[in-house]
What we know:
CATH class: Mainly Alpha
CATH superfamily: MetI-like
Number of strands: 0
Helix content: over 70%
CATH topology: MetI-like fold
Shape: elongated
Order of helices and strands: HHHHHHHHHHH
Strand content: under 5%
CATH architecture: Orthogonal Bundle
Number of domains: 1
Structural class: mainly alpha
Amino acid sequence: MRRFPWLLAAAFAILAAALLAALFGGWLTPYGVTQQNLLARLKPPSFLGGDPRYLLGTDRLGRDMVARLVGGLQMSLSVAVAGTLIGAVVGSAIGFIAAHFRGWVEESLMMLVDFQASLPFILIALTLLAFFGNSLTLFVILMGLHGWESYARLARGVVLSAAGQPYAKAVVALGAAPMRLYLRHILPNVASALIVQVTLNFPQIILLETSLSFLGLGIQPPMTSLGQILGDGREYLSSAWWIAVWPGLVIFAVTLSMSIVGDWLRDRLDPMLRVRTA
């Protein structure tokens, strides 16, 4: 990112705009997410000759696309944040446990990690959704299960490395309990690697959520998400392209921006990369 600072600035600006839109986007339009107006259905954006009351046009039920995008962005970001936090906490905890107990505990947990990593997660998600039915709670839990194995493998590696450092051995020699050692001393020193993994996993969860919602297996009406809006618009690509294009652009911009920021954070926080570029 050092060679392209404008790209990083644009990524931060897009993420800030997405966050502000999710928090305060309701003020951008007087219409609700589910408010219908069948007399104004499939209106093009106002700058293309459509109704001036609807800046980005309307969908098949006459719902304002600005309101729909704001509501979809709020839901998609909320699910992605919740899923990322669940995966980070669960995966990191498993990595810490494996690094502490070693032996058969470590081998068992790493076998579970390898089993999870060997299967396409979307097949697991489809199976669980088909077996248990769809609900928002189950869906968020599924998003949290996506990528936990990467946190577990990373946490185990960095904890084993940190535990061999002189400061960790000194803390153990002073009689500190394992919980104090890991939470007060090792975790702050390995947090940078886990934070980078969070930024890399976040856009993957957004894409997974939008993919499942696009297929009709994710967020269900009357709630909405960017993937659900995109799925609704696939039947109108030739006659009302804006229904699918706007959420597609938002998904593309947010995920790409988060990936750019994650790559920048990796360059800044990874000591091995700093040594190579020094």
